Amino acid sequence: MKTRKVKKISLITGLIFIFIFAIFIGIIGISRGLGSIYPKLNYIAKPFVCPSLAMTYTQNETQIGSETYWSANWFCGDAELASDVVFRYAGLLYGFVFFIILLFIIYAYWNSSIGPAQNDGLHLW
Predict the structure, then answer these.
(1) What is the C-alpha separation between 70 and 87, in angstroms, rounded?
(2) Sheet containing 79-81, strands listed edge to edge, beginning at the edge strand earlier in sequence
């Protein structure tokens, strides 16, 4: 029986889509979402955003009706940072880590006993 492989263009397209998805989740879900509730998560961006000074934050909690909204103001020394800069750098790092995790999960599934590679399906490489 001949081994079938995934077409290179399909593999590249899939990897690009997964990478964009992971970066989106890293920025929006982890850095902005969880980083607003737990601002210490965004300290990972300090070497890129504020390498020589102390990076600090103030967390704001706003109650509107029954809803609670969190936000954080970031400072590099005495100067206030745009929170978008902190979110982007932290989100890119978290997104890259998320991408690696997704690749591992896909590879593990693909080659598992229930995956396509073991059931006369396509092989990744």
Answers:
(1) 14
(2) 55-64, 67-76, 79-81
Q: Are strands 55-64 and 79-81 parallel, antiparallel or unpaired?
A: unpaired
* Cβ density class 55-75: b for 16+ within 10 Å, e for less: bebeeeeeeeeeeeeeebebe
pTM of this prediction? 0.79
Beta strands in the chain (DSSP E): 55-64, 67-76, 79-81
Residue 10 has phi, psi (to 5 degrees) of -70, -40
pLDDT tens, 69-107? 888 889 998 889 887 899 999 999 999 999 999 999 988
CA atoms of 125 and 12, how far apart (whole Å)? 12
Which tokens go with 22?
Answer: 């992971």
